[in-house]
Amino acid sequence: MIKQADKLVDVKTNGSSLWHAPQAPRPPGRFEKASPPRAPLGGPLRNAAPELFAELVRHYGALLDKAVDQRIHQGESVSTELHDLSARLKRLRAGARDVIELHARTLDEKLASAPPPLTKAYVEEGRLVVLELMGRLLSDYRTAFLQAAQPPS
Which position among 42, 97, 116, 137 has the lowest Cβ density within 10 Å, counted as fewest Cβ atoms? Predict the structure, then answer.
């Protein structure tokens, strides 16, 4: 009981004593929402969840392979799969830096093992794929923000 009382703040003003109980946490405002940490453990995904980041690198690498194949052989577009990856990154609260790190790590791995004629295709197609992924992620966050900002009906 004494320890709880010690937590109360005794403010002395003009000889009188005012007691303030600890404040209860405020509920989120209209634009503030209680949200999970940015990444599963906080911080950049590559540090917070290395195994998950490695899985994302493999997945993004497969999409990059498919995009290069599509460019060479007029195969199937990767847009739908990029939409799914963007939704997953949004759930993980990934940011632009996470997308860039994902792209850079994947591209480094691809360029280290790709035959020289394919390296240019990976670089060029990678620019388009990362730009589309970044745009989709931005659009997903914007949509979520606008939905949260709408007054309740």
Answer: 116
